[in-house]
Design a protein that fits this description.
The chain has helices spanning 5-18, 21-35, 51-59, 70-79, 115-127, 205-214, and strands at 41-45, 62-67, 85-87, 99-104, 129-137, 150-158, 161-172, 175-186, 190-201, 217-222, 231-236. The chain is of the alpha/beta class and 237 residues long. The strands form 2 sheets. Strands 3-2-1-4-5-11-10 form a 7-stranded mixed beta sheet, with helices on both faces. Strands 6-7-8-9 form a 4-stranded antiparallel beta sheet, covered by helices on one side.
């Protein structure tokens, strides 16, 4: 998604202006401890640059992260002194340790392309749970609630710099095509523009539920409101 450090920093600034990462982490921690009250360790899968992970590290005694991108993992490690951050594919990673909870936030699971990928990822995450551990996955939207043609906008000013983001989402079969444009106006360097196209799979509720059950998890889906897609929560039997 990001080609260099400056692009990741831009993304982080935009979303920290519109998302309350600490509140989201606290909500998920509540889901986890509602099912496992003594949960003290957590692994954040697809942790990106580590903003959610930083919030989880304040809540849990032991936290770690993993991301597909080595340089994203490096950025997260820089942000979180003393918190292990690994590079690995969510479909096949093996850290050789277990946690009371494993989470996958911000619809990162949607970047998987097939049901087989989804099953593999849930299986890999489950392998890293202790007995009675909790898996929490924030899905992408579902085929029945995706809004074709959806437009998102956000802009803010920070000192001598203004940043805006607009996106337009369409559907291609069971995949969301999200075209995103960023414009940065800087007092010193003028105006810069970049764009990207992201593809996220519209897995069904049944496909998520089946992936959890195939991995031996008791599963439920909870709504979160606020325009977010909710969470699938699984407890390892």
């Amino acid at each position: 998604m990001y080609e260099n450090k400056s692009q990741a920093e831009l993304y982080d600034r935009l979303y920290q202006d519109r998302k309350d990462y600490e509140a989201e982490a606290a909500q998920v921690a509540g889901f986890i401890r509602g099912r496992k009250p003594d949960a003290a360790s957590l692994l954040d899968v697809a942790c990106g640059t580590g903003i959610h992970l930083a919030a989880f590290a304040k809540i849990f005694d032991r936290a770690a992260g993993i991301d597909l991108s080595q340089w994203m993992a490096d950025l997260a490690f820089e942000r979180l002194a003393g918190v292990p951050v690994h590079q690995g594919d969510m479909r096949s990673f093996d850290l050789g340790e277990t946690f009371d909870a494993v989470v996958c936030m911000f619809s990162s699971i949607g970047y998987l392309r097939t049901v087989e990928d989804l099953d593999s990822a849930v299986r890999a995450m489950t392998r890293h749970l202790v007995e009675d551990g909790v898996l929490a996955i924030e899905p992408w939207y579902f085929p029945d609630n995706f809004l074709p043609g959806y437009v998102s906008t956000h802009a803010f000013k920070d000192g001598d710099q203004g940043i805006s983001r607009v996106s337009h989402s369409t559907r291609e079969g069971n995949v969301t095509r999200m075209e995103i444009h960023y414009v940065v106006a800087d007092a010193g360097t003028g105006i810069q523009h970049r764009s990207e196209v992201d593809y996220l799979t519209l897995f069904s509720r049944e496909e998520y539920t089946n992936a959890f059950r195939k991995s031996g998890l008791d599963v439920e889906y909870v709504e979160t409101g606020g325009g977010r897609p909710g969470f699938f929560l699984g407890t390892r039997k």
